[in-house]
Amino acid sequence: MTRAAISFDVAPDVRLIADAFGDPDAPAVLLLHGGGQTRHAWHATAADLADAGWRVIAVDLRGHGQSTYPRPPAYALEDFAADARALIAAIAEEPIVIGASLGGIAGLLALTEPSAAPASGLVLVDVAHRFQPRGGGRIVSFMGEHPDGFATLTEAADAIDAYLPHRARPHDTHGLRHNLRRTEQGRWIWHWDPEILTQTRPLIQDQAELSARLTTAATRLRQPCLLVRGAESDVLSADTAREFIQIAPTATLTEVPHAGHMVAGDNNDAFTAAIRAWLDTSAARTSPTRARPTKTVMDRTRVEAFLRSRGAVRLVHPGGSLYEHLCRVSMLLSDWGANETIQMVGLCHACYGTDGFDHVMVDRADRQVLVELIGPTAESLVYLYCSCDRAVAYPLLADNRPAAFRDRFTERLHIPSEQEIRDFIEVTAANELDALAHNHALLAEHGADLFRLFTGAREHLSDSAWRACVDLLGTKGDHVVEVES
Known about the structure:
Layout: E1 3-11, E2 14-21, E3 28-32, H1 43-51, E4 55-59, H2 77-91, E5 96-100, H3 102-112, E6 121-125, H4 133-144, H5 153-163, E7 180-182, E8 188-190, H6 194-205, H7 208-220, E9 225-230, H8 238-247, E10 251-256, H9 263-266, H10 268-282, H11 295-298, H12 300-309, E11 316-317, E12 320-321, H13 322-335, H14 340-348, H15 367-374, H16 376-387, H17 390-398, E13 405-406, E14 413-414, H18 418-437, H19 440-456, H20 463-473
Helix pairs in contact: 1-10, 2-3, 3-7, 4-6, 13-14, 13-18, 14-16, 15-16, 17-19, 18-19, 18-20, 19-20
């Protein structure tokens, strides 16, 4: 594993210092630390990911470590987000962004607010759209203490012990030199600009505006996203974490045991294992192991067994059981030339219940179960399909207008990407055609309306899917072809 010191000029007179680990030609992971930390907080995780085949770049944020302390001070969230965009642009590919606390906020805003930066995925470490005031206040209080620094590293270690009583005290205080710098007077002070606290304290004390902004950002996420919560965190509550994965359409949740807000420092082995597991299953497009199809994503037999275990064989559906219907839909998508991800979506498209068949096989609070089974891309499309309020989306699609989707679970509106709409329409066609082909009454009742839907959405359908629509539903919106017994 190689390690090199590099730098990025992200703004006029602002240079960020970074460490790069691993093969320079490997897929990239960008690490953004939390407020009051430095790039060295990631060292163990960065080395592990580099050994696994990633190029890892750990950066000192502005005002931290060896990076520039801008004057006049410029530490608004917009500044940190702009730096994240500049870093992503400099990397010249779509990296995975992993951000803790302040770094996570910067990453989330960089990926979702104009001009949104391209990234392959986002990991948020103990930060979401809201935080616990008491936990946030405790951080601010600690950062504001000891403005004159410490006489010795041991004295600094005592202060950290009091702040993090659950963490074992290191035998050697040498590592604290990464978080402290020595003044000309010989005292050790924190290795970050105190002006950061001056500019960010109001956001902590009154989080309403920030929460609204982060909530909007979460709903705009399109990349695979993992939210990592420290199981003992006093900053991100379990309820808020679960709420985040409901409003962020691509997010999944994992908890690291025996860890508070500073997850990587409290339980680095478990944290890094969780990151690596998610990267292997959720970043298939960029993962160094992408050439090896993983069982998590590709094992159809395992998925079919899961559906049977959730009762799909016992649920009546046109053409037999729900299980038989799901298998036929997946095979129909295969016949139309859909890739394996979309075939998996067809197989699992009813897992959370749909607007037309509301039996739930997987609780939405357990989305990670499906992520681990079929991968995050397929799972996010399953959620899109199940959550779609058809009364809102179908008329827009039929009229070939921009489709605002209403999430019938959360009642939130969002506009899917062009590719998501194509995938949604393709799965919709396979689902509806199979159901109608096996139930003449449904065909007579809904065939004309569905043909109008697919006619309006024709540009989103594959040629094979469109031919199948015409074959079953007819050539005009007011005509339905009779299906012989």
